[in-house]
């Protein structure tokens, strides 16, 4: 009797659930068609609660997330769909399209080739190949960016005038390769130094990238006379929804002061979480004061959270050597800040840092800046 009642309940609820799913799914598609992408995302996620492994819902949700420029999250959703429906060609096309939006054109081309190996006449894949070829030829992913910043430092435990530092940087290039020119003007100890730097960054593919910076301070009083920086990062794994991409990093630097050279060898690890909305970065810092042949070990931890599509919050703590006028002393730093995209072309950033320099002083740093993108 109980079995019959349960069977009747299941049969009676199944049509209602199917009807509810259809209503939610159609509502999501309507919201997307009308450009209400935030609402569309919510409705697609509601549809997933009714049908968790539905490949059509995962496809449409991934596309909406891509339109919202939450690319890593979009790829994770589409990968979930492919795991459930590996032969669903539209999922593979969506992955290739989003990788193209991210500038990972070589990976996108490989995905398109895979699709055409299965379905040589697929019109969507052929059109996507044409579009991405035109994208390469026209170099539409050019980057022009101007960053301006200002820092003011106030001291506790010692009687010292505030430090004032201003910087300006212009960056030009593409999503794969960028070059920049930067100038920093610092006022400390009644002296003024101007540091000038140029550098370049390049991504060999979607997993591997690197950079190099060269800088100098003419007639330096307290800043390094010259500095060389280089580094690389490599994505170990793509991950999924909760535990996303894992990236290893290595940063190297050498600075020359009148008193001698300082060298840094700093490996690190970056882990994305929660569909790419949060990421943690840790570094093992190794500072070598080459004059007395002394190593000063340290570490740093930082957390970033994409609270909104236009707002990122960050904070961190570090215990590492800070070099001032050629002298390196272990300093405990705590900081927090925010990056706000006011429009697609204007961004603002704010930060507060407290440095506790061992047996010396406490320094509070107030930072602000703006970014203009062209």
Describe this protein's structure.
With 374 residues, the protein is α+β, with helices and mostly antiparallel strands. It folds into 2 domains: 2-138, Tetratricopeptide repeat domain (Serine Threonine Protein Phosphatase 5, Tetratricopeptide repeat, Alpha Horseshoe); 143-373, Porin (Beta Barrel), CATH 2.40.160.40. The chain has helices at residues 2-33, 37-50, 55-67, 71-84, 89-101, 105-118, 123-138, and strands at 143-156, 163-173, 177-188, 191-203, 208-216, 226-237, 243-257, 260-273, 278-289, 294-308, 311-324, 327-341, 346-357, 361-373. It has a 14-stranded antiparallel β-barrel with strand order 1-2-3-4-5-6-7-8-9-10-11-12-13-14. Helix 1 packs antiparallel against helix 2 (37-50) and helix 5 packs antiparallel against helix 6 (105-118). It is elongated and about 75 Å long.
Structural class: alpha+beta
The poorly predicted ranges are 1-16
Secondary-structure element pattern, one letter each:
HHHHHHHEEEEEEEEEEEEEE
CATH architecture of the largest domain: Beta Barrel
- In spatial order, strands of the major sheet run 1-2-3-4-5-6-7-8-9-10-11-12-13-14
Net shape: elongated
Task: Provide mean pLDDT, rounded.
Answer: 87
CATH class of the largest domain: Mainly Beta
Largest sheet: 14 strands, antiparallel, barrel
Strand fraction equals: over 45%
N-to-C CA distance:
72 Å
